[in-house]
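Action item from last week, closing it out:
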Amino acid sequence: MIAEHEIIIGNTGGDRIAQKIAHALREWGNNAIILDINNKLFFLTEKEQKRKGRIFKLKLDSEGVFPITVSKIIRKATIYFELKNKNIKMASKNLDALFNYFLISNFKHPILIVLDGLQTLKKLHSLPRLIKEGSSKNIRLLIPIFVSNIEDLMHLLKKIGYDKSEIDMFLNNCKIIKMC
């Protein structure tokens, strides 16, 4: 079970990290929001998540998915946000709105948020605050990033647009798991 925020780093290829995420989802007994690049996680975890409850597959595109819609269907559900390479950058604004909603709302149910593909998104302004305050709001983050070491992780976060204090927040508030 995910007891704290985790960043999984490794350059071993997507299959091994995807298996780690699938395992975490199997152990997580609550709600989940999964940012799913090209449906890989959906295909790995769909049957298991269906046994646990409802699943929804939504598209994050330029129109977006409003946070209130998600808040109504998240109870006892897993939501897969399907992202194709062509709409990944446009989804950043919609994810920020959703994360800000969870930060300001009094949402009582534990949520696991899997942010697959963070390195392809524009800066999520709400993410550092979600990392800082999420645990107290029953929100856990699982973030796979394809880099080989912590220095590369820091460089990538800087390239996305995070400043030094935000990068320090990532490193100080997340358990770093290295997959070889």
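Closing note: The two ends are 21 Å apart (CA to CA).
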